[in-house]
Design a protein that fits this description.
By secondary structure, the protein is mainly beta. It has four helices and 15 strands.
Length: about 325
């Protein structure tokens, strides 16, 4: 067995680790039965075609924090058994349709902490075994609702920390019959509608935390009959009759909304600012003037995010 000089390999040749070695290209790997290849914390800006062609038994590939900017079509040729691919913390702005087409066994794909602004509708086409996609902490602006429709086994989708994300309220956001966890936290969302979630009616877990929501349409919960986890903490919630109904429905259906300090809290009116929304259970709403609702309904709340470095053309 020949292990690259800059890497570490186990005696059987199943594991290769080339982390933090200032590599500028993927080294040639001689062991034929490598199943796990870690190559993060390097300076590999380009993945060329056939970069891993000799690693036909590879199951796990981690090429994170490598300043990666470009992935050529065919870069993953030969990786027909790969189940886990991690490329987080790079400088990727876009990925071409066909980038992942050879990864028919892929189950987990992590593209978080990049600069991706747009996802082609067919980028994940054919990945029938894909169960988890992490696109959090990118620069996404929008998604076509059918982007994930061709992934029949998709269970978990992380889209949080995309502060410029435009979540539609006049049409469905995502079309998926299999999705069980949807995270759109920290996306600066100020409004949602029943139509937004019309095509994920089987969804059990929804994370809306740390956005700019003042309230939530109770009909969203009614349209998600299998929902049992809903996270609203970190939003500037307006504690009024409308929110009381939402909380009551969560109680009636045993929908988990957080624990400890991670619970929905009132932002307005000032009488209950900073209090957990459980105050609505005991608060004498007869003494809570409905004018509060009218007074605060047009109040806007926003968060400030640091500027992101723009991608080079």
């Amino acid at each position: 067995m020949l292990c690259p000089a800059e890497c570490k390999c186990d005696s059987a040749g199943y594991y290769v680790e080339c982390n933090d070695k200032s590599l500028i290209a993927v080294p040639l790997i001689h062991p034929k039965f490598v199943q796990s290849f870690q190559i993060y914390d390097n300076n590999i800006t380009l993945l060329e075609k056939d970069s891993f062609i000799s690693m036909t038994e590879l199951l796990i590939l981690d090429i994170s924090w490598c300043e990666l900017r470009t992935v050529d079509l065919g870069a993953f040729n030969g990786l027909t058994k790969l189940t886990g691919l991690t490329m987080r913390g790079n400088q990727l702005c876009e990925l071409l349709t066909g980038t992942f087409e050879s990864l028919r066994s892929l189950e987990n794909l992590d593209l978080s902490n990049n600069r991706i602004e747009h996802i082609d509708n067919d980028l994940f086409s054919g990945l029938i075994n894909l169960k988890l996609i992490n696109l959090s902490a990118n620069k996404l602006k929008s998604l076509h609702p059918n982007t994930f429709l061709g992934i029949p086994n998709l269970r978990t989708l992380y889209l949080g920390k995309n502060p410029g994300f435009q979540i539609p309220t006049d049409r469905n956001f995502i079309n998926s019959h299999s999705l069980s966890t949807l995270d759109i936290s920290k996306c600066n969302i100020s409004s949602l509608s029943v139509e937004t979630f019309a095509k994920v009616s089987e969804l059990p877990r929804l994370d809306l935390s740390d956005n700019n929501l003042k309230s939530l349409d109770i009909n969203i919960l009614r349209a998600l009959p299998k929902l049992f986890e809903l996270y609203l903490y970190g939003n500037p919630l307006q504690c009024d009759y409308q929110l009381k109904e939402v909380r009551q429905l969560c109680e009636d259906r045993n929908i988990q909304t957080g624990n400890g300090s991670w619970v929905p809290k009132c932002d307005t009116p000032s009488d209950v600012k900073g209090m957990g929304w459980e105050v609505l259970e005991t608060w004498l709403l007869l003494d809570f003037p409905k004018i509060y609702y009218e007074e605060y309904i047009d109040t806007s709340y926003s968060k400030t995010y640091s500027d992101w470095e723009e991608c080079e053309n």
